[in-house]
Amino acid sequence: AAVRGSGKLVLLDKLLTRLRERGNRVLIFSQMVR
């Protein structure tokens, strides 16, 4: 289970890195929408 979970975590990590590259703009936008 841990191995399968780590595989998903790797994918999430890649997605998070991409989100972090755009992240600041997205977070600011989401906060303004709220």
TrEMBL record:
<dbReference type="GO" id="GO:0000785">
    <property type="term" value="C:chromatin"/>
</dbReference>
<dbReference type="GO" id="GO:0003682">
    <property type="term" value="F:chromatin binding"/>
</dbReference>
<keyword id="KW-0539">Nucleus</keyword>
<dbReference type="GO" id="GO:0016887">
    <property type="term" value="F:ATP hydrolysis activity"/>
</dbReference>
<dbReference type="GO" id="GO:0042393">
    <property type="term" value="F:histone binding"/>
</dbReference>
<dbReference type="GO" id="GO:0003677">
    <property type="term" value="F:DNA binding"/>
</dbReference>
<dbReference type="InterPro" id="IPR027417">
    <property type="entry name" value="P-loop_NTPase"/>
</dbReference>
<dbReference type="GO" id="GO:0034728">
    <property type="term" value="P:nucleosome organization"/>
</dbReference>
<dbReference type="GO" id="GO:0140658">
    <property type="term" value="F:ATP-dependent chromatin remodeler activity"/>
</dbReference>
<protein>
    <submittedName>
        <fullName>(spotted green pufferfish) hypothetical protein</fullName>
    </submittedName>
</protein>
<dbReference type="GO" id="GO:0005634">
    <property type="term" value="C:nucleus"/>
</dbReference>
